[in-house]
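hey team, just a heads up i'm posting the complex here instead of the shared drive bc the drive is being weird again. everything in one block, sequence lines first with there labels, then the predicted structure for the whole assembly after. its two chains so it's a bit long, scroll down
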Amino acid sequence: MSSTRPIRERNPATTAVVGVLGGGQLGRMLALAGHPLGVELVCVDPSADAPAAAVARHVTRDYADPEALAALASCAVVTYEFESVPVSAAEALAEKTRVSPPPEALRVAQDRLLEKQCFRALGIPTPDFAAVGSRAELEAGCEALGFPAVLKTRRLGYDGKGQRVLRSRKELDDAWTALGGVPCILERFVPFERELSLLVVRGQDGSTVHYPLVENEHEGGILRVTRAPAPGLTPSLQARAAEYGSRLCARLAYVGVLALELFEAGGELLANEMAPRVHNSGHFTIEGARTSQFENHLRAILGLPLGSPEVPEPCAMLNCVGALPDPHAVLSVPGAHLHLYGKAPRAGRKVGHITVTGEQALAERLERLRALPGVG
Amino acid sequence: MSSTRPIRERNPATTAVVGVLGGGQLGRMLALAGHPLGVELVCVDPSADAPAAAVARHVTRDYADPEALAALASCAVVTYEFESVPVSAAEALAEKTRVSPPPEALRVAQDRLLEKQCFRALGIPTPDFAAVGSRAELEAGCEALGFPAVLKTRRLGYDGKGQRVLRSRKELDDAWTALGGVPCILERFVPFERELSLLVVRGQDGSTVHYPLVENEHEGGILRVTRAPAPGLTPSLQARAAEYGSRLCARLAYVGVLALELFEAGGELLANEMAPRVHNSGHFTIEGARTSQFENHLRAILGLPLGSPEVPEPCAMLNCVGALPDPHAVLSVPGAHLHLYGKAPRAGRKVGHITVTGEQALAERLERLRALPGVG
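-- predicted structure starts here --
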């Protein structure tokens, strides 16, 4: 019995081989979107049980490993599916093959200060912020911005990690120590009404499409539910967000899917952060949009025409966190589609998601799903 | 660099391992639908470059090979993705594990005479027919049915192969010889207006859903274009077809997707043949229906609730035959989605398909796609 499954680079039916830094669930869903296009993925991920490995070639090496980089350098194009890959690795690859999105986008997205400065330079509103390189600068920043404020490490923060809310001077010492005294950014706390996100896709020829703004609901710093389009979305709000997304893409010579997280506060849109990759808040697009973010990312980086981002009817996405949902219970809800990532459950770990559609019935279906253990 | 991609049967995130007799494009699309459900496929296919191998475990053995059968027997359920697998292999497997659809459906579908007799016994209209086991019976059959008539081998016919149209007595000798003197069925030639097909899905609990009837257009015996729903489809026509599909499923204790091909002639629906598996005329369901036939087949055979077969708006599917289409040209048509099967092109070989949606614009988009080499 043979269990080898060779990647057939020489198969004339293969459109392209795409290299990916990372092999998590985003890589897995990129790979699932790639096969119908004749696109095979090679994912570099040091984890032996990377979720993408079931559907893509898996190079079980560190992101900066020379052999891994050699494997990627032979691909038509290299992309990333999480943003903590070393910029140096992406830059080295860019000398050998096409790398999309460009390493510059990775560099900016990895640093909350560079990111906010980039937003500001483009006229994209953000919460007020100050650079904090020392305990003294933290003091000065709080003086300037007032309380409450949020202290965030410039690098390596995700899912609410690496940040502290400061409500008074008394909390500065603890927060500074807890975050390890590393370079930080201090931001004015924005009492926002909701968090929205925008997915932009930009092709090699500069053509750009925008998915409708979606509304994200977090709990414990982890995304739980996305509603698409964002309830009550107006054309003017969408146009404003799309303009911000387009400016960012143009500034970064961006190619691929870019996610921009925004706060809606008092009629204003404030940019919080960006992700230079497909994004959890775009998972709904698999069933909910004309073209999924995964297919559009591949189309973009391969120089193919982009697909329509239209969302024909309201839908929602619920993350499965910490526990595997019961497939029978999930699929007994009309309009529900289950996406498991092949990951063993652990507290706080995203192991899958559910998309649910249904126009009038959406709210009721959403509540049925949220009542299930580990869902939403 | 590791290129092994182990199937993780023991991964707690795996819902089930499904065995499949066959590893062609249908197996490939089943596998792509399976991963999000946590379902891994093991496909048995003697061909080294089976299309499913890129996304499923591939056992490169003959369908009746003991080791292959042992591998399948350890699966939660076994299914087929083409119907020429030996019934004996399916029956042997059914003694060890669940086999869906039941081997009896395979037995009936493999024999055009049993199939037509089954339709007739259930009150499902068919073209008039006669069994032909000898040259003399051919003579008698033509006497009874008149000309034109169609002589078909009882077994192993597909894509227009294994059949001859008879227009007069003079053609009997040639046709009988050309088909090899094997057991045949003779059918009255029906000047049908169009060919329709119905996809039915029946769950383990007997619950049944029907996709809307679709219209199929053939050329050279090969399906070229499917329009879904069939233009001008009326509720009464749909209800009649659904009733036939339900009767068949109930009679065969069917579980899974069943395709029923029908002729529409003078307001009548005549059953032509059935396929106990996902079907080419159902490929449009990946983008065109609420739930794809591939996902619904897996849901059915795993005892999960069935998904909605609703088709929210008109769409069409075009086969790519004999040549790989240019992805750029295909995807520049709005609403078009490309599905390649990882097969090298050969004359008459189905190497992919395209789904296109678009309500008002559908006809124009369809024509743009049909103008491409190898499409439709």
